[in-house]
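Ticket #4471: structure output looks truncated?

Reporter: J.K.
Steps to reproduce: submitted the chain below (324 residues) through the standard prediction queue, then opened the result file.
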Amino acid sequence: MSTAAPLTDDEVGILLTAAVHAPSMDNTQPWRFEVAGPVIDVRLDEERLLPAADPAGRAMRIGLGAAAFNLRVAAAMLGHESAFTIAPDPADPAVVARIFLSERNGPVPGLSALYGEITRRHTYRGPMVEQAIPPIVVGALTGAAEAEGAVLHWLDEDAKRQLAQVLREADDLDLHDEDRLHERAEWIGGKRPDDGVPDTALGPVPTRPAMVRDLSAGFVTPGRDQAAFEEHPVIAVLSTEDEDEHAWVRAGLALQRVLLTATSSVLAVSFLNQALEYPALRGQIRQLVGGHAWPQMILRIGYPTEAEAGTGRLPWRDTLDRWF
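Returned output as attached by the reporter:
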């Protein structure tokens, strides 16, 4: 148990503002927070789940892991060393992670350097430049995943062709799943200032086949631009050795370290996770990465061709359950 002094109002605001800028499936922001002295609980908000698209809660726990990582980065910037546990309270399964902060000193090397990227990062759904990522940057992204206990598999051209086929199957399944379409309509399109994905963040409609997820597929979204997407995208699959709720949270920690590291190198990232939302198709992706690790996220990474709007976030005070 941490013996550090209680957090100030300013500190709590900085920490939770960072946390809510984590990515989550359909930007549902499925987190709540509880602050007890220098201890912060990251809790699952059961009112923001996606039972049709994410029945096991895998994607939701990845999002909570990403929020926990942002908390640790913000704490490091403030001068707090941190430790954490996953699912610390069997009597309260809604507590997904618990973060313990030390006494405040100087900025913590490593994590604190990523703080400036938290609000700059957003999911980019536009075309990428046809340009290779330098090996030193690829190495940094790979190392970021490994630092949190995950693996980043970079797909070669043959694997990407196989992935494209799986993505087409997933997109077709989505279009014929009324439960998913109804659920997605609650979060996608229109004007959404605080959560969900508004029209302004959907990105352009591809003018030719492309490895990009169109979240508005099946809905009418008038006024969207059209664009030709890159023919040879850079694709990486984030995987974990284990497959359980702990591993999903770990995947979220790794995902966010990768995303912030990518942002620091002026890279943009979008997700192709529809291929992981159906067990049979996820099994095919598992084979693509060697058949041993469990694929948790599929990342399309590159240099963006244009500026693009991000998605809104709930005010941090609206996510705070208790502070004592």
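Triage note (M.O.): checked the attachment and the full token line is present. The first helix runs from residue 9 to 19.
Status: closed, working as intended.
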